[in-house]
Amino acid sequence: MSVRSGARRKFLRAACTLAGGALVLAGCTTNTETNAPTVSKVPVAKVDSLAAKLPDKIKQAGKLVVGVNVPYQPNEYRDPNTGKIVGFDIDLMDAVGQVLGVKTDYQQADFEKIIPAIQAGTFDLGMSSFTDNKEREKTVDFVDYFSAGIQWAQSKGKPVDPNNACGKKVAVQRTTTEDTDEVPAKSKACKDAGKPEITKVAFDEQSAAATALVLGQVDAMSADSPVAAYAIKQNKDKIEAAGPVFEAEPYGWPVPKDSPLGPVLQQAVQHLMDSGEYRKICENWGVQDGAITTSVINGAKG
Fold first, then answer.
1. Where in the cell is it found (predicted)?
2. What is this structure's pTM?
3. Separation of CA 240 from chain center
4. Mapped to the 3 state alphabet, what secondary structure does 146-191 carry?
5. pLDDT tens, 36-70?
6. CATH for 48-147+249-297?
7. Do the strands 140-155 and 220-224 form a parallel or antiparallel pair, or are they unpaired?
8. Domains 48-147+249-297 and 150-246 share a fold
């Protein structure tokens, strides 16, 4: 997955570009950073018993200071029209803030500097599609809230098997795990079996990869599951999921090691899961396939 998962970084920019001689419409139409869901947010009620558990520093400040790195659509990115940071992660953290009766103050930072800033006390927590893994758990705790993996997409009505895509053209974003590891490994397996290799078509931007599929320039696309899910939601008449999500790992919010904030955040997001608000937020952004029903602290798989 992305550098956020320790393997790679995605840069999703809204732009009109050319790919293979065809106009890539994604940066100008349905797959841009300007197309945030228009469903109005429903106010979430404060839960006094949970708010009372917040560390005194946060109670007195009346806000959670959250380190975030953008862009990573649809999870967190800057709306070019308003300048505000928006996304699935933002909506979920705003709802957590409402449960705890505090505001959310998003501070943009380089991704690799967020965890050190949490350790230094500059940020209360981080929220940038961090994958919870054992190595990171040595320095911070994670409140897990989502499951993300790799998801393939295909043109509607034109099935592609991600485990047997020999001879197919598959779009990826350049420098991603899908580009450097996943698709090449599957192509090698095809070659070793005496079958045609996969033709990998790499683009600088994820939006261009999605549009190549929408325009029928490729047979399939491989991307991180929330990114692929959002592309499918934005182009639901043209593309659909090809098989299930695989190699899934938990996303988590990093907090200082052994901080009392961790259990409070875990209980707040669990409250949203139990009330159904969490599911509504996931569905609003088209990422419900990664929704979980139980939040845990430090649930890394490896």
1. Cell envelope
2. 0.78
3. 18
4. EEEEEEEEEECCCCCCCCCCCCCEEEEECCCHHHHHHHHHHHHHHH
5. 675 557 689 999 999 999 999 999 999 999 999 88
6. 3.40.190.10
7. antiparallel
8. yes
